[in-house]
Design goal:
The complex is a heterodimer of chains A (about 210) and B (about 350). With about 210 residues, chain A is mainly α. Chain A has helices at about 15-25, 30-50, 50-70, 80-95, 95-105, 120-130, 130-140, 140-150, 160-165, 170-185. In chain A, helix 3 (about 50-70) packs across helix 4. Chain B is globular and about 60 Å long. The relative contact order of chain B is 0.20. In chain B, helix 4 runs antiparallel to helix 8, helix 6 packs across helix 7 and helix 7 (about 230-240) packs antiparallel against helix 8 (about 250-260). Chain B is an alpha+beta fold and about 350 residues long. In chain B, a hairpin with a 6-residue loop joins strand 8 (about 290-295) and strand 9. In chain B, about 25% of the residues lie in helices and about 25% in strands. Chain B has one domain (about 20-65, about 80-340). The chains are: A mainly alpha (about 210), B alpha+beta (about 350). The interface between A and B is large, with 72 and 71 residues.
């Protein structure tokens, strides 16, 4: 709605994110392409962490914040995913209490669900996440959970996760090392991805302590 | 059994429902009409090829006498009035603004806040051959926003003759839209989250200085970006005041909270886009002082102004006026013009 005509790459080649964002500086409507390209992935990520309802808000806000910050985007980065996930992670951090509540509720999921072994169980289980994992996630600090889930659920590389969170990649490595150790401690010894295991978290066990590094 | 705990978590990734098309359309539509802001500041984070392109531009900016290399439509530039730094503190000016009684409105939920203004902001373009161009685009705008945010609003934009960005030749395409008027629909579904500025929402904002300050610092994810928090909070304040009616109590809190932002300075003898004299209160960001302009007699909000204070960062000579607005009229309207604008639809949002 401002005026000038930006320039996109010649037809036949797909513009990378940096080119779209650059063009959107003078033609804001072009930013919609960045939205089209990444909105579903950001929404999936937010929905995994917070549920569908809040994912709608987080996704809309992620792109609005990104749009307003697009003047500061590092145009040397072709791929805007780390930047967008970083914004989303910041917004999700604002819902930390509700995320932890949700994880704890999942950790308390009725045990009998786990023993039916039929398709309904598979669906219920995957939709709600396995209680032991939910319990272990609830016990991580917010910063640890942000990092772990960017790597495990958003498929970011260590370098990309470092960029998303604005920390050195060395910090990513050491923080993940600590996360692994914590998970090992909090997941039951006999935990197997498809096996049965105790939840490992009582309802009032609530150590979402913030650890900054 | 997998030994890697991260892999275990990855495999426990919950299944999620697809993004609902309605919510998706609403989120996308919200981007389409986000109001001009940030254009006050110059891009900070460019690197790689663009630094090279911009380096040439810096030379242009530092040698304003040099004839522009590109064909220009107009070479007139906007020069700010000489300013004097005030003896009044930001706290004093904003404190008086907080106590000022302006035109108070009392809209019903089904009515609209109608605001007209004149604006000039920078248009930045990185075009062919990585050549950056800049100019100042000017408009007259009237916006109708639903008082409770539940109805579609409208926006009328009249494009005025653009001006050169000081230190930069004006590109030919700058004049393409001058003289044209467009109407846009502002769909109600886009009024949520950080985009909300409707009266019902503004009414719910804190009235205490401390709580309002906290609100400003959290409005965007300011706290997460080291060194940007103050400027993000200042921007949040400007975004709440622009083209809105903020009820008196919240407005007072907003000004008092703004006065607590470190680095806020007062500049006297400023002028808004309509030529009204005022006192500037602002914060420097990317080499540009981003002021709000306060009436020196009534202490009411008049508009905004951006003035270059660091030529290197702003790539424009010190003293250049790179943004200027004037908020002219604010009233309550029973209806907003109906705009047939299918491109700004949100789909079947209820």
């Amino acid at each position: 709605m401002t005026v000038p005509r930006g320039t996109l790459p010649p037809q036949g080649r797909v513009a990378d994110d940096a080119e779209l964002i650059q063009a959107s500086l003078s033609r804001p409507e072009i930013f919609a392409h960045v939205f089209d390209r990444h909105a579903d992935a950001i929404h999936d990520y937010a929905a995994r962490r917070l549920g569908d309802q809040q994912a709608d808000d987080v996704t809309a806000d992620t792109f609005l914040v990104a749009f307003r910050k697009r003047h500061r985007y590092d145009l040397a980065r072709d791929d805007a995913r780390p930047w967008l996930y970083g914004i989303a992670a910041n917004l999700i951090a604002g819902h930390r209490r509700s995320e932890v509540r949700r994880l704890k509720a999942m950790a308390r999921a009725p045990r009998e669900l786990e023993h039916t072994g039929d398709l309904a169980f598979e669906q219920a289980s995957s939709a709600a996440m396995r209680p032991a994992i939910a319990a272990a996630l609830a016990r991580l600090s917010a910063a640890e959970r942000d990092l772990l889930l960017l790597v495990a659920w958003a498929d970011l590389s260590y370098e990309e996760a470092a960029r998303a969170l604005g920390v050195p990649v060395g910090t990513v490595r050491s923080r993940l090392h600590r996360v692994r150790a914590k998970l090992r401690r909090h997941l039951p010894d006999d935990y197997a991805p498809n096996g049965h295991s105790p939840t490992g978290l009582s309802p009032d066990d609530s150590p979402d302590t913030e650890v900054t590094s | 059994m997998t030994k890697d705990e991260i892999e275990l978590v990855a495999r426990a990734r919950p299944e999620v429902a697809p993004y609902s098309p309605d919510a998706r359309r609403a989120a996308r539509a919200r981007l389409a009409w986000d109001r001009p802001r940030r254009s006050l500041t110059v891009p900070l984070a460019f690197s790689g090829a663009l630094v090279t392109a911009a380096a040439g531009a810096v030379i242009v900016a530092q040698l304003p006498d040099k004839q522009p290399a590109e064909p220009t439509v107009s070479t007139s530039t906007v020069v700010a009035l000489p300013t004097t730094v005030s003896k009044m503190s930001a706290e004093e000016v904003l404190g008086r603004a907080a106590k000022a009684t302006g035109t108070e409105l009392d809209p019903r939920p089904d009515q609209f806040i109608q605001v007209s203004s004149e604006t000039m902001y920078g248009a930045f373009r990185f075009g062919d051959g990585d050549q950056e161009t800049r100019y100042l685009y000017r408009t007259k705008r009237t916006i109708w926003q639903s008082a409770d945010g539940t109805k579609d609003g409208s926006l009328k934009i009249e494009h005025l003759t653009p001006k050169a960005y000081p230190g930069w030749p004006i590109p030919p395409q700058a004049n393409e839209e001058a003289g044209k008027t467009e109407m846009m629909r502002l769909p109600a579904c886009t009024n949520s989250g950080v985009a909300r500025t409707d009266y019902e929402f503004l009414k719910t904002l804190p009235t205490g200085t401390k709580a309002m300050r906290e609100f400003l610092y959290n409005r965007y994810d300011a706290g997460k970006e080291p060194g940007r928090a103050d400027s993000e909070a200042w921007t949040a304040m400007g975004d709440l005041l622009r083209e809105t009616y903020v009820p008196a109590e919240q407005r007072a809190a907003l000004f008092r909270a703004a006065a607590t932002i470190p680095g806020v300075i007062v500049t006297e003898n400023e002028e808004d886009a309509a030529g009204r004299k005022g006192i500037g209160v602002g914060l420097v960001s990317a080499g540009v002082r981003e002021d709000i302009i306060i009436d020196p007699t009534t202490y009411e909000y008049l508009g905004e102004r951006g003035v270059v204070v660091n030529a290197e960062e702003a790539k424009s000579p010190v003293g250049s006026l790179v943004a200027s607005t004037a908020q002219l009229e604010m009233t309550v309207a029973d209806t907003a013009p109906v705009v047939d604008d299918p491109s700004s639809s949100c789909g079947e949002v209820h």
